[in-house]
Specification:
heterodimer; A: 303 residues; 37% helix; 24% strand; globular; B: 319 residues; alpha/beta; 9-stranded mixed beta sheet; 4-stranded antiparallel beta sheet; 13 strands
C-alpha cells in the first residue's frame, strides 16, 4: 500500500543572514490512508513546524532546506502556490490549538464554514450556507440552524473547536492535521472533542496527523506514534509497543516523568523520573533512533 | 487531630453581574457557594475542577486578594479575612502563592536577587549579609545556584523560572503555600522535576500546600486530600485514595473517567475505578449530577455534604 503522506528527510532551518540554524534534522515518516499518526514531543521539538511545512504555511525566517513531502504522489514542496492553495483546506485541512485566534472574529461561523464550499466546491453562497448548517450538525453542535449566525466570541471554547473541525472536514480531506486541538480545553470537553475527531475521521476514512505534548491524548487517539526531540524523530512505533516497551532513552525518560494514574495506589508514591538525571548528555540523544518497521497493516489502519 | 492550620468556613463569593448599582434586583454571579475546608499542617490539599468552578476564587480569598462576600477564613484560629484580618505584612508571613505562569509573575526589570530581596527588606531584613545568606539558601533549596540570582527572568528557561517563583514564595518562610496550577504550563520532563522539588520542599520545611489543579494525575501523585469542586460547591472531598479508588459523586467519576491516561487507555495499569453509573447511598440522591451547567446567578439547591466513610464526604440531598 502506498502511503498517503510520505515525508522524506525533511530539513528545515532558520536563516539569519549568512547563518542557517537547523530546526528539523532529517525527519521522515509516512501516514497511510485512514491512519491516525501522532507526533509527540516537548515544546521546541519541531512538531508544529513539521505540520506547517506539510500544509505549506511556513513563514519567512523559516525555510525548507531539503527533503521531500509526497502527498497523494505529488511533492508538495515543488508544487506551484496556486495548486497548493487549492489543495489546502480541500485535500489537507488543519485544526489549530487556539480556535479563537484561528477563526475570524468579524464573520459568523456559518459564513466561515460556507467559504470552504464556495472556494473548493464551486457552490453559491446560498447553497454553501445550507451545507454549513449540515456541517455544524455533523460535529454535534446543538441547534445548528441558529448557531450558524453566531460569531466566534458568542461560543464556548469547546463549541469553537467543533466549528474548526466542521470547517476542516467540510471538503472531506484525505488528511487532517490536528495541532494540539484540545490543549486549551477542560478535561471533560477535551474528551468529547477527541471522541468527535476519532469518530468522524473513522467514518470518513480521513487520515490524521495528530500533534500533542500530552502522552495520554496521543495514546487515546493514535495507531502509530513518533517521538520528536530537538528536531529529530527519535523513536517511532505502534502506540501500544511504544508505551509498553519504549526503546529510546528519551522516550523512556518521558514516560517515567509522567505521573501515572493509579500507580500511587498500587506501588505507593514513587519519585518521578528526572530526565536529566539519567541522561548524561542531552546533545547525544539524537544520535540513536529507533524506527520500528511497519508490521502487516492492522485491520482498522488499512483501507 | 490538632486544630487545622487554615480553616475556611462557609465561604461565599459573589460578583455583581448587571443591573443598576442602586436597583433592588442586582443579578449576582455565585462564584463560590458555602465552601468549607480545613488544611492541616504539612498536608497537601488539592482543589480540582474545571474552569469557572470557583477554585481560583477560593485561592484568592485565602490569599486575601478577594474579599469573601460571606463566611470566614481562620488561620491558627484567628480571623484571616474580614475586619479583624491581619495586615498584609503578617499575611505574607503566613501564606504565599506560586502562580501558573512564572514569566508573567516575575518583574522583567528586576534581577532575581532584587525580586527576592524586596520582600525581606519590607520585613525588616536589611543587613546586606543576612539578605545574601537568605537568598543563597533559598536559591540552593530550589535547585539553583546563588550566582544565578544576578540574572534577569528572561535569561532562564521555563522550569528555572518556576523554581524562582517557588523561591520567591518561600523566601519569607510561610506556612501555607497556595499553588495555582504550578506545573500546567510546563513540559513533561520539566513538570516531573518541579513536582519532585515541591514534594521535597514540603517534607523539608513542613509546608502546607493548597493546590489548585485540573490535572488529576498530578493531583493523585501529590495530594493527601482532594476536594472536587463543581460550580462553586464542593461535591466530593476525602483522602486521595478514597477519591481515586472509590469516587462516588457522578461528577468526580466523570472527571476521573475522562482523563486521557496512557495506562488506562491501553489497558496496562489497573482499571479506572469510575466505570458504571454512580450509586447514591440509600435514602439520598445527588443534588446535581454535574452533567449540565447550573444557573450561576441562582443560589444552588439545598444539599449537604454527607460523610460516607471516615473523612470522605459527598454532596447529597435527601430524597
Amino acid at each position: 500500500m502506498t502511503p498517503l503522506l510520505d515525508v522524506r528527510n525533511l530539513e528545515l532551518g532558520l536563516r539569519h543572514g549568512a547563518h542557517a540554524h537547523r530546526i528539523l534534522k532529517g525527519v521522515s515518516f509516512q501516514i497511510m490512508p485512514g491512519e491516525t499518526y501522532g507526533l509527540v514531543g516537548e515544546s521546541g521539538s519541531g512538531k508544529s513546524v513539521t505540520s506547517l511545512a506539510i500544509i505549506g504555511l511556513l513563514k519567512k525566517p523559516l525555510q525548507i532546506l531539503g527533503g521531500e513531502i509526497f502527498f497523494e504522489g505529488r511533492n508538495l514542496l515543488a508544487l506551484p502556490r496556486r495548486e497548493m492553495r487549492s489543495l489546502r483546506g480541500n485535500r489537507i485541512a488543519m485544526v489549530f490549538q487556539e480556535p479563537m485566534s484561528a477563526l475570524n472574529p468579524l464573520q459568523t461561523v456559518g459564513r466561515q464554514i460556507a467559504e470552504m464550499y464556495v472556494q473548493h466546491r464551486g457552490k453559491s453562497w446560498a447553497q454553501a450556507q445550507k451545507k454549513a448548517v449540515e456541517a455544524l450538525a455533523s460535529v454535534r453542535v446543538p441547534t445548528p440552524e441558529r448557531r450558524v449566525h453566531d460569531y466566534p466570541h458568542q461560543m464556548s471554547g469547546g463549541l469553537r473547536q467543533r466549528v474548526m473541525i466542521a470547517m476542516a472536514l467540510a471538503c472531506d480531506p484525505a488528511l487532517l492535521i490536528a495541532d494540539e486541538p484540545t490543549t486549551a480545553l477542560d478535561v471533560t470537553v477535551q474528551a468529547e472533542v477527541l471522541k468527535l475527531i476519532r469518530e468522524l475521521c473513522a467514518a470518513r476514512g480521513t487520515a490524521v496527523l495528530f500533534i500533542s505534548h500530552d502522552l495520554g491524548v496521543i495514546a487515546t487517539m493514535c495507531q502509530r506514534v513518533g517521538v520528536m526531540y530537538a528536531g529529530c524523530l527519535v523513536e517511532e512505533n505502534a502506540t501500544r509497543e511504544l508505551f509498553v516497551d519504549p526503546r529510546h532513552e528519551y522516550t523512556r525518560g518521558l514516560l517515567g516523568a509522567l505521573p501515572k494514574l493509579g500507580s500511587r495506589g498500587l506501588h505507593g508514591r514513587q519519585r518521578l523520573v528526572d530526565i536529566d538525571s539519567f541522561i548524561a548528555d542531552r546533545s547525544r540523544l539524537t544520535d540513536t533512533r529507533f524506527i520500528a518497521p511497519r508490521g502487516p497493516v492492522s485491520g482498522e489502519a488499512g483501507s | 487531630m490538632n486544630a487545622p492550620l487554615l480553616s475556611i468556613d462557609d465561604l461565599h463569593v459573589r460578583f455583581p453581574l448587571s443591573g443598576s448599582w442602586f436597583g433592588r434586583q442586582r443579578r449576582m454571579l455565585h462564584a463560590v457557594n458555602g465552601l468549607s475546608l480545613d488544611l492541616a499542617k504539612g498536608e497537601c490539599l488539592s482543589i480540582v475542577g474545571e474552569s469557572g468552578c470557583g477554585k481560583s476564587t477560593t485561592a484568592l480569598s485565602v490569599m486575601g486578594l478577594q474579599e469573601p462576600t460571606q463566611g470566614s477564613i481562620l488561620f491558627r484560629g484567628k480571623p484571616f479575612s474580614g475586619p479583624q484580618a491581619p495586615s498584609r505584612m503578617e499575611r505574607a508571613m503566613a501564606a504565599q502563592m506560586v502562580f501558573q505562569d512564572p514569566y508573567a509573575s516575575l518583574n522583567p526589570r528586576q534581577t532575581v536577587w532584587q525580586s527576592l530581596a524586596q520582600p525581606l527588606r519590607l520585613h525588616n531584613v536589611t543587613a546586606r549579609s543576612e539578605l545574601s545568606d537568605r537568598i543563597e539558601t533559598v536559591m540552593r533549596s530550589v535547585g539553583l545556584t546563588p550566582e544565578q540570582a544576578a540574572r534577569y527572568p528572561h535569561e532562564f528557561s521555563g522550569g528555572q523560572r518556576q523554581r524562582i517563583g517557588i523561591a520567591r514564595a518561600l523566601i519569607l518562610q510561610p506556612e501555607i503555600v497556595v499553588l495555582d496550577e504550578p506545573v500546567s504550563a510546563l513540559d513533561v520532563s520539566i513538570r516531573a522535576q518541579i513536582i519532585n522539588l515541591l514534594l521535597d520542599l514540603q517534607e523539608e520545611f513542613g509546608l502546607s500546600y493548597l493546590m489548585i489543579s485540573h490535572d488529576l494525575s498530578v493531583v493523585e501523585h501529590m495530594s493527601d486530600r482532594v476536594a472536587v469542586m463543581f460550580f462553586g460547591q464542593i461535591v466530593e472531598t476525602g483522602p486521595w485514595s478514597a477519591i481515586f479508588s472509590d469516587p462516588v459523586h457522578p461528577y468526580t467519576r466523570r472527571l476521573i473517567a475522562t482523563i486521557p491516561d496512557p495506562g488506562a487507555v491501553l489497558g496496562l495499569g489497573r482499571e479506572v475505578a469510575a466505570e458504571g453509573p454512580a450509586q447514591a447511598p440509600a435514602g439520598w440522591s445527588f443534588a446535581d449530577d454535574g452533567s449540565s451547567a447550573p444557573d450561576v446567578t441562582q443560589e444552588p439547591k439545598p444539599s449537604e455534604l454527607v460523610e460516607i466513610a471516615p473523612g470522605h464526604f459527598v454532596r447529597l440531598s435527601r430524597s
